[in-house]
Amino acid sequence: xxxxxxxxxxxxxxxxxxxxxxxxxxxxxxxxxxxxxxxxxxxxxxxxxxxxxxxxxxxxxxxxxxxxxxxxxxxxxxxxxxxxxxxxxxxxxxxxxxxxxxxxxxxxxxxxxxxxxxxxxxxxxxxxxxxxxxxxxxxxxxxxxxxxxxxxxxxxxxxxxxxxxxxxxxxxxxxxxxxxxxxxxxxxxxxxxxxxxxxxxxxxxxxxxxxxxxxxxxxxxxxxxxxxxxxxxxxxxxxxxxxxxxxxxxxxxxxxxxxxxxxxxxxxxxxxxxxxxxxxxxxxxxxxxxxxxxxxxxxxxxxxxxxxxxxxxxxxxxxxx
Length: 321
Fold this sequence. Notes:
Elements: E1 7-11, H1 16-27, E2 32-34, H2 46-56, E3 60-63, H3 71-76, H4 78-98, E4 103-107, H5 136-156, E5 160-165, E6 167-169, H6 182-196, E7 200-204, E8 210-215, H7 216-229, E9 236-238, E10 243-245, H8 246-257, E11 262-266, H9 281-287, H10 295-314
Parallel strand pairs: 1-2, 1-3, 3-4, 4-5, 5-9, 6-8, 7-11
Antiparallel strand pairs: 8-10
Helix pairs in contact: 1-7, 2-4, 4-5, 6-8, 6-10, 8-10
């Protein structure tokens, strides 16, 4: 698909991942990119979704909008995370079908995989068990987007694809301590501990789980490549192929931020899924994606961005995110 000729709707296009996807589309010469804002279109309401399609008439939809957060946010909001993600996906896809949209790109989550999936996670293992309990409502809500897309392909010939990114990180991430994921949460925790001179930081769990992380710009490139080149029904993993334990991650971030105190593990708090690492061969085979950003370099850029934002915020030069 030649994207520069298409009118593209990017839900969540003003968000962390969305901004980078919009930039990647613009690099390909895309001139007609629609980024709906929640103040105009509440995508959990049918009338707003219907109005969005009437107003914009897109040819391609990339659905990135989601209600997300770390373990704490998932534990505090399981009902909201389940309902809003489910209803957004269901209505956006159905109205895309009614509007004869040429292609719908659904973005799922690694949280949809079963808790004890053999590592590396292969796409064919997606249905072999229940997701890890702390984020199951979110993971299952996003998983239904895959089911709906395959059903619509079967009944209506609707071209919907489904991508499964790992945990993302990078400049522009959410650093709110109430809702951030592990990397921004740890960066903020370490930097604030350095500023205060704290002798220790406390981290959830025991540090043994492993995670795979993907730099946000790499993920954006993967999504655009898939939009251009992939038209299959099967879900496709999007990752870096690099696995690191939470313990090693904390130590690396502490080193990069200059924190030299003790790291204390609060084992009364949940650790989350034991391991997460994707088999990423299909992304290369089907649409030629391979991550390019070295993890340490990506972390350094993320820390530099956050430090710069914090300095500007202190000077009143930017608005808090």
